[in-house]
């Protein structure tokens, strides 16, 4: 899958690439499209997201590379690889040959730091369900743990989940800056239409940093 970030893409951040970090996603992954949408304008008012009460936020952390994401509600513990934009503005996606893999936008905000971190994974691959299968079924309050290279575990709590048509994707709402430490989990969803390029929607989980602990 190839992923196109809309015009209101997350701001690029200067973040040093650690030795031994995962390389760029192979070009072959571009054959499977995880299109996050490229709207010309913000959509009108739609259905309200499935959301819960605001969670208590924890103090943001200094920048550190994330290495793994755990989502107990999905029984997922997946390594995180670096994802970057190509010259056409498309974001690489995790290698579809590995169903248990997720990726974060490394030129954006590291999870746990102030701002809005972006994590992407497939809902399925040619060989079966993938890391974010069932993301749309999680409930507000569900826990997401991000293990970081600094030995910290940043725990986020999901406060809303929504599904957006790729042709009407609210870029600013999903990717826009935040003052506290937040996280967006994105995958494909909605109807699958092979002739139209695959899944027609994206599922987005909105989460906020709730606590921090040592690994």
Structure characteristics:
single chain; Sortase, Chain: A; eight-stranded mixed barrel; disordered N terminus
Break the fold down into its secondary structure elements and pairings.
Layout: E1 3-4, E2 50-51, E3 66-71, E4 76-83, E5 90-91, E6 102-105, E7 115-120, E8 124-125, E9 128-129, E10 143-148, E11 152-165, H1 171-175, E12 181-193, E13 198-214
Can you give me a brief rundown of this structure?
2% of the residues lie in helices and 39% in strands.
Structure description:
The chain is 2% helix and 39% strand. It contains one helix and 13 strands. An eight-stranded mixed barrel has the order 3-4-6-7-12-13-11-10. A two-stranded antiparallel ribbon has the order 1-5. The chain has a single domain, classed as Sortase, Chain: A (Beta Barrel). The protein is globular and about 45 Å long.
Q: How is the CATH topology named?
A: Sortase, Chain: A
Regions with pLDDT < 50 over 5+ consecutive residues? 1-11, 14-48
CATH class: Mainly Beta
Mean pLDDT: 79
How much of the sequence lies in strands comes to 35-45%
Query: What proportion of the residues is helical, as a percent range?
Result: under 10%
CATH architecture level-2 label: Beta Barrel
Beta strands, count:
13
Structural class: mainly beta
Task: Sum up the overall morphology in one term.
Answer: globular
Q: Compute the CA-based radius of gyration.
A: 16 Å
Order of helices and strands: EEEEEEEEEEEHEE
Per CATH, the superfamily is: Sortase
The biggest beta sheet reads: 8 strands, mixed, barrel
Question: How many helices in DSSP terms?
Answer: 1
Q: Give the distance, in angstroms, between the N- and C-terminal Cα atoms.
A: 32 Å
Q: How many structural domains in the coordinates?
A: 1
Q: Give the strand order, joined by hyphens, for the main sheet.
A: 3-4-6-7-12-13-11-10
